[in-house]
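Quarterly update from the structural biology core.
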Amino acid sequence: MMRSLSSAATGMKAQQLNIDTTSNNLSNVNTSGFKKSRVNFQDLVYQTLREPGTPNNQGSQVPNGIEVGHGVRPASTQKLFAQGGFKNTENPLDVAIEGQGFFQVLRPDGTVAYTRDGSFKQDENGQLVTSDGYIVQPDDDIVIPDEATSVIISEEGTIHAEIPGEDDYEEIGQLELAQFPNAAGLESLGRNLFGETPSSGDAIVGEPGEDGFGTLAQGYLEESNVEVVDEMVNMIQAQRAYETNSKSIQASDEMLQQANNLRR
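Predicted structure, tokenized:
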């Protein structure tokens, strides 16, 4: 079988994954805190028909060998954690991170997940929770009193509540952020959440504005970092690459057909 058939087939499969990733990026263009993905590719093993430097009939060495590749394979899908734009919501419980860091939330199974989506709510106990009801960590420190008329969240993550009859705002908690040595190694869990993995390294927890952590912006949400125009260009490129690989298969098939007809 001609190598071009299998090589072109790997190219078509690779571009299918490329289209799948691009489509997911575009579908999340309005998802708060979403980070786009990129597919990284690698060429496959090469078959060496002649080694570079092989002696020829005149006793000298050939400058170039003969190597034939066998196509391409996806190496990884990489999350790109570039900062997204800010959207003013005027909701006091919406918080955006300007810079590095993730909010920490407690999942129902007792594990901690991480998110850039700061669209928080208040549950029946006064605790800050996500849209799915996951409690924002540290859960034992952040409880909004029932009688509070307003909540102020500073850039450093300190939370104050205005209580009727009191002259000063009451401090009710402190938001903390987490960082990772390799954020691209986090596992995407869905629901705007990421999970820690051996590749990401252990979470480093700290307060906003300190030791390289980003600051917070109350009343804002971080938008998706997906650029629609860039993704549309990527989609067109993937489509053209897919078509070109399919034409390689068609050309190889026609060549085989001509070779078969030589016997007649």
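The longest helix spans residues 228-261.
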